[in-house]
Structures are given as structure tokens and as C-alpha cells.
Amino acid sequence: MYKVLTFDNISSRGLDRLPRERFEVSSEIQHPDAVLLRSAKLHEWDVPDTLKAVGRAGAGVNNVPVDAMSARGIPVFNAPGANANAVKELVLAGMFLAARNVCAAWAFAESLEGDDAAMNKEAEAGKKQFTGFELPGRTLGVIGLGAVGVNIANAAAGLGMKVIGYDPKITVRNAWNLESNVTRAQTVDEVMAASDMVTLHVPEIEETRGMINGARLAAAREGQVLLNFARAGVVDDDAIIKALDEGRLSSYICDFPAAALKGNSKVVALPHIGASTNEAQENCAIMAADEIRDFLETGNVTNSVNFPELILPRNTDGDRLTVVNANVPNMLGQISSALAEAGLNIDDMYNKSRGELAYSVADVDGTIPPAVVERLEGIEGVLKVRVI
Ligand SMILES: NC(=O)C1=CN([C@@H]2O[C@H](COP(=O)(O)OP(=O)(O)OC[C@H]3O[C@@H](n4cnc5c(N)ncnc54)[C@H](O)[C@@H]3O)[C@@H](O)[C@H]2O)C=CC1
Ligand SMILES: O=C(O)C(=O)COP(=O)(O)O
């Protein structure tokens, strides 16, 4: 029986992928084999020795201590693209809100007093302050052309916008998916200078933290709309407020409330609802649950952010050994010697590395005794050993 600990509300459509005769799933489980979570922060969590996998039912993994998990030989899985359409739709909504001053206009209409005739008179007199602009012909800058960024770039191009994108590490797949009229910028500053609206879709990592700062905003086209549905940490809120005060930015639409932003009429801060649609939550939960189930039951790895992709079909009746180790020479030799000395023959084997980690899956022609596992665990650089 595998034990899966859940943090946050994970869609039941995803949890249903874990058959209860083989998986105990609860938010209060002790000694879990795996964790399924959304945005709960795992950085302060006391990682139990039993943990074998982490499944993030979403895209960003900045809430998970990925390096610490790697050091323990634990894969972190996520759900790439599973909520991208939900984010795209909310960003488009944000673009329309900003272009037509919808929030300020709505607040104005709510503030009107008197009978219908009086309200109507005031509405007609006041509406000129909310004159907006239309999107065709305007330029949208997209920083980060991953699953979300590509969706938005293509949708904006479909609305008749000029689109300029920046992503120095764009994948070949995303580049193929991008509309051919999306132009490529070489720097963030180039995007800031060329765009009427800029939208951020980078992960929060060391190199993106605070990437939209005072200097970058100084390069922004006058009156720019900035949208941030990536992470709070990729912008400097104080610099945003200054740019709004100076008119460099006309509005800031984001998914991350903060004290500094509160009460500012040029800011719309939503409560991190970019992925909060039933569709996205089902997609994410199903993908993450499938990934951890497959890993626990077979050792196969799909969509991990720290482990190599590895799928070995199982064709024998003997045990399967999985070993996670530091990516250094002579590990495979030591693993196969330990098996050979126990009289076990390897029927099938697959080994892959990613950065400082290596991962091996070996199918043998018999039962692996506990002494072999102990011996493997004793090898310097071995981080995790499992027999499935
Ligand atoms: N508001 C919300 O509810 C949601 C927020 N997100 C956030 O959006 C981020 C992006 O999501 P996806 O597009 O699904 O992820 P993704 O991994 O498909 O795309 C991220 C892209 O950013 C690029 N990138 C990395 N560093 C960069 C840099 N310095 N400059 C420019 N581009 C850079 C990568 O090459 C990649 O193409 C997530 O990491 C998460 O933080 C994602 C989903 C929902
Ligand atoms: O997928 C992401 O990166 C998100 O930010 C969505 O997070 P959530 O599932 O709403 O907690």
C-alpha cells in the first residue's frame, strides 16, 4: 500500500487515479511515500525518510525545495501546460480590463447616487475619463515563451496585436507552436521599449527574481500596461508603484496581492486565481497523480523537473531495482557488481543522467535480497535505492 499525503485542495478527478486498494490518500497521513500539492510551501516541511516523490499539480515549483529533494534522491514532478489555457484566459481578461479601464469605470458607476435619471446623467458626464484603446495594432511583449507565454502570444496575434517575445531558453517545441508573425527580442529592455503591454511568464528562479526592477521600468514605453501572472517575486513592487506614479506604467494587473499595491487605483491584484478553473485543476491533478503513481509502481519518470525522463517497459517477472545516485564515474559498475555477486542477472537496464543526478532502472531475473539493497545504499554517492 502506497501512502500519498495531500496538501491543498487536489481535484478528486486526480485523486481518483490512485486506486484505493493500492493507495491510501489523505491530508493527514504519516510516513508518506509521496506528496501531492498545489501552492503549499514545502520549504519548511520536515521531509520524512519514507518520501519517494513529490507531485506538484501545477506549473511553478518555487514552493518546493527542489535542490534539497534532489540531494535526497527524490523526484519532483509537475504538470507542464495543464493550466496554461486557464492562465491565458485570465491574462486576456486582464488586458481587456486595462485597455478599457474597466475596474475604475465600474467603481465610478458603483459610486453614483440618486434616481436612475440622475445616475444616467452623471454616468454620461463622467464616462470620458475612462476612454480606452483597442488592441489591434498595439504591441504586446511576452517575457517567457513557455506553455503559458506561447498561448498568450498566439491569442494576442489572433486579436490583431503585434507580438514581440523574449525567451533565451525557448524549447524547440514551443518555438514550433509559436505563430510565425511573433517577432523575437534579444533582451528584456527591447521588449519593454517596444511594447504597449508587457506580460510576464517566467518561472521564479534565481535569474528571474526581481527582473522587472526600476532600471527595466525606466526603459518601458510611456503609459505601458504591465501584467504579472507569473510570480510576485519576479517584479519589484516599490519600483512598480514609482513607475505608476510617474506615468511610465498606466496600470499593473497581477495575480499577487501585496501591502504595497493595496488601494492603488492603477493596480488590479487578483488572489492568485490564474489556474483556478475546474478544467485546469482537473488537468493538473490528473497529470500529477498519474506521474507519481507511475513512479511509485514502476520507477518510470515523466515530467520531472529534476530527474531525467526515463521509461523502461517491464518484460520480466523478477524484481526491478531503481537507484538514484550522484552523476560520477563507476556507479553502474558497482551496481551491476552487487547484483552479479548475489547471483542475479540483469535482463534489462536503463540509465540516464540529468545535471548532478543519475538514475538507473534494472530488471533482474530473481528476487533482490535485503543485503544487496543495504550494500547498494552503502556505496558513496548513492542517494536512494528501491526494489519494486
Ligand atoms: N498565476 C497562476 O496561477 C499561474 C502562474 N504560473 C507561473 O507562470 C510560470 C510559467 O508557466 P508555464 O508557461 O506553464 O511554464 P513553462 O516552464 O512552460 O515556461 C516558462 C518559460 O520561461 C522561460 N524562461 C526561463 N527563464 C527566463 C528568463 N530569464 N527570461 C525569459 N524567459 C525565461 C523558459 O525558457 C520557459 O520557456 C510558472 O513557472 C509559474 O510561476 C503558471 C501557471 C499558473
Ligand atoms: O501552476 C502554477 O504555477 C500556479 O501558480 C497555480 O497554482 P495553484 O494550483 O492555483 O496553487
Automatic annotation (TrEMBL):
Function statement: Catalyzes the reversible oxidation of 3-phospho-D-glycerate to 3-phosphonooxypyruvate, the first step of the phosphorylated L-serine biosynthesis pathway. Also catalyzes the reversible oxidation of 2-hydroxyglutarate to 2-oxoglutarate.
Pfam families the UniProt entry points to: 2-Hacid_dh (PF00389), 2-Hacid_dh_C (PF02826)
Superkingdom, taxonomy of origin: Bacteria
Region forming the signal peptide: none
Oxidoreductase as UniProt keyword: yes
Catalytic activity, as annotated: (R)-2-hydroxyglutarate + NAD(+) = 2-oxoglutarate + NADH + H(+); (2R)-3-phosphoglycerate + NAD(+) = 3-phosphooxypyruvate + NADH + H(+)
Species classification: Bacteria, Pseudomonadati, Pseudomonadota, Gammaproteobacteria, Chromatiales
Protein name: D-3-phosphoglycerate dehydrogenase
Pathway the protein acts in: Amino-acid biosynthesis; L-serine biosynthesis; L-serine from 3-phospho-D-glycerate: step 1/3
Documented EC number(s): 1.1.1.399, 1.1.1.95
Organism: Spiribacter vilamensis
An annotated Gene Ontology molecular function: NAD binding
Domain ACT: 320-388
Keyword Transmembrane belongs to the record: no
Family membership noted in the UniProt record: Belongs to the D-isomer specific 2-hydroxyacid dehydrogenase family.
UniProt keyword list: NAD, Oxidoreductase
